[in-house]
Design goal:
Blueprint: E1 2-5, H1 9-26, E2 32-37, E3 46-50, E4 55-60, H2 65-83, H3 101-120
Length: about 140
């Protein structure tokens, strides 16, 4: 089940569609809460926390649509990693952020997964879906 906190109707619709797309792709169906937060003082565009029986994904609500969806794809890669036992709360202890295998995979896949989603939804010609915006996901 996918739950939402905050965000615009459009953000929630796009996020739900992206999440369902990736759940099917990864063959997983976890409970996820996607919370659109202000995160003004946080340099991160998004984050995921594994809770007892669900995941909480926080996304900076001020992101443009493309950046929001790329960030969500990044965080959903982490959900996949948790679901498959590839990531735990201590997996990356003591490893620099950019050297963490979980981050390397998430950064490598985020734009690829977004582009697949764009193609499936025939959005290649929409201005907002085209590459060209600065994207910093964490």
């Amino acid at each position: 089940m996918i739950y939402f906190e905050g965000g615009t109707k459009r953000q929630r619709e796009l996020a739900e569609d992206m999440a369902i797309f990736l759940f099917r792709k990864f063959n997983m169906y976890p409970d996820v809460e996607i919370a659109f937060k202000r995160l003004t003082n946080d340099p991160a565009a998004g984050a995921v926390v594994a809770l007892d029986d669900e995941y909480l994904i926080e996304i900076k609500r001020s992101l443009r649509q493309r950046d929001m969806l790329v960030t969500l794809a990044h965080e959903l890669v982490h959900v996949k990693q948790y679901e498959r036992g590839e990531l735990t709360q201590t997996t990356n202890a003591g490893i620099d952020y950019w050297d963490r295998p979980s981050e390397i995979e998430a950064h490598e896949l985020e734009a690829v997964l977004f582009d697949e989603w764009v193609k499936v939804n025939q959005l290649e010609n929409t201005k907002w879906a085209q590459d060209g915006s600065a994207n910093t996901t964490v």
